[in-house]
Amino acid sequence: MFDQCKFEKVCITGLGEVGLPTAMYISSKGLTVFGYDINKDVVSRALKCGIKSVENFESLPSDIDAYIICVSTSLTSFGEPDLTPVLDVCGKIAKRKQKSVLVSIESTIIPGTTRKIYEEIFQADENVYLVHVPHRYWSGNPVKYGVRQLRVIGAVNRESLKKGIYFYSDILDIPLHPVSRVEVAEMSKIMENAYRYVCITFAEEARMICEELGLDFEEVRKACNTKWNIEILEARNGIGGHCLPKDIRYLTSLTKYNTLLRSAMLVDEKYRLWLSRRTRS
Q: Which domains does the chain have, with CATH numbers?
């Protein structure tokens, strides 16, 4: 069992929609929390919330016990995964001379990223305990689906997994689902969001079909949902936000087996066009 005093100081890198609530939650557990973000306005907001935050990474204390990486990942201009923010902050952590540190990547990444970071950036340093605990934060209901909800955890080795479980479960009281390989944790995040994307596009296409046939989609949907194993979602204004459109593209970039996923993206595109035509008519 690890001593709780080893986690007295925690740094959250990336203080956006996920990072700031994470920092505030950890602070509520009695740990000293520091924040880092390159955006001046974001840092100012965190300071107003009581989180000691800086724009300059070198200004952080040298004796941080755990780094939680919550920076946003995105897509390149070619539609490929852009993990540069995660790689950059891991590079900054690696340059610090420290005896023992837990590094948790909560940002969305693709399979193979965590292990590559451990081997190439951290040089497989036995003093670095590296885990991936993808966030499931939803700002629509931060109480039920906020920082403290069931999370998946994977690690580059057994000792990292033990330390990660101790930190998240024993200290932060966050329920965990440990997996055998860190790649499983990486895959789970993009797959669950891609699944959600496909479910929404089914509803979008079903709505277009129903209305072309002169049927009320909502009435048909509710009729279908009376069956015990059916739960057709609502068809709203197209799939927006940052995560779902990005994560389904992360998944399609991994393999040639992406026919359904690419078709789902096409459906959403057609649905948006269909909605705009309805608005103009």
A: 4-180 (3.40.50.720), 189-280 (1.10.1040.10)
